[in-house]
Amino acid sequence: MDIRDFRLERYMAQHEFSAPFLLCSSDCETLSIQDLLTFEDQSYENFLNLKLGYTEAPGSPELREEISAWYNAIDSNDVIVTSGAEETIFIAMHVLLRSGDHVIVQMPAYQSLHEIPKSIGCHVSPWHMVEKNGAWHLDLEILHDLITPNTKVLVINSPHNPTGYQFSASDWAEIEKICSDHSIFIISDEVYRGIEHNPDTALNPMADMSESALSIGVMSKSLGLAGLRIGWVASQNEEFRKKFQAFKDYTTICNSGPSEYLARLALKYKDQIIKNNLSIIHENMDILHTFFKSYADQVTWSAPIAGSTAFPRLVSDTPVETFCDKVRKDTGVLLLPGTVFHVETPHFRLGYGRKNMPDILGRFEQYLQSRI
Ligand SMILES: Cc1ncc(COP(=O)(O)O)c(C=O)c1O
């Protein structure tokens, strides 16, 4: 397998555990094992008594039941649990695609969403997001134009990392129709589901809407539990699921029992966890609105409407990587340059799902003041 370095993950591997102040994390505030175990009586004893043998290949029935409760048309048999969304992406692409196939990918994107199809030998057409009048946009007319008779898969991500964009319900339904008309399978990365800033605008998962679609979910983002390494694929398509399960025998076979136990518990109480994280997001968004008004001569943004990341733009000729390096060296604050998303404009990612964001933003602010 010939695959390029995953720029974002290489960057985070280099700096995430050495830079003291993270201002670019995509995940929400995390919880301890103890926090999770206090949700339910008896869970402390149950967790300590858990046997550490192999677990059921598709995930424990209890966990799959809890995951399927987050969908409408999906039942527990339609869910396969994985070691994070990253494993879901890897397997789904290998199951659905062959060398020479054409794939359309919403861009910018988490790199595996376009890099894995490329490593399989697919032709990848980017469906570019554009920033106009203070908002991010995706044009469905352009999607129409990108489709060829050989297009097998459309890859979308909403809520979107890094822009915080979310499709409108009408565009979402239209995408499902376009793909159905052209027999295109939809890979819908929904790992930021649950933290739509206005919960009334939350979209139906694609896996609920179509049998030729899969939804990717994970514990990492809206629930803040990335260390569990538990993700999943949900799809009504039985043939796809069979192939996915068979491929998983060559990656992780089954998942970590302790992680599955804790994931089930967290999902049972997900409304409470997400409510806390959404209130952090709302408080941080208020602070960010003021911040971007104050520093509009140095950084601009199209305010995100969903998720826990934004993609502001530097107003300067300084290359964005140099800027992020300097901010990190002078202040210890870690930003993520847009170059890791293969973006040529001077954008950088900012994360606002964590409680300590206002303090860290203050350090960044001091840096911007020192440039005036
Ligand atoms: C859009 C998107 N998909 C998938 C992933 C992978 O999630 P995980 O690290 O939990 O496997 C990420 C992580 O940043 C992401 O942003």
TrEMBL record:
CDD domains: AAT_like (cd00609). Pfam families: Aminotran_1_2. GO terms for molecular function: pyridoxal phosphate binding; transaminase activity. Keywords: Aminotransferase, Transferase. Gene3D superfamilies: Aspartate Aminotransferase, domain 1 (3.90.1150.10), Type I PLP-dependent aspartate aminotransferase-like (Major domain) (3.40.640.10). Residues 53-352 form the Aminotransferase class I/classII large domain. PANTHER family: AMINOTRANSFERASE FUNCTION, HYPOTHETICAL (EUROFUNG) (PTHR43510). This is Aminotransferase. It comes from Methanospirillum lacunae.
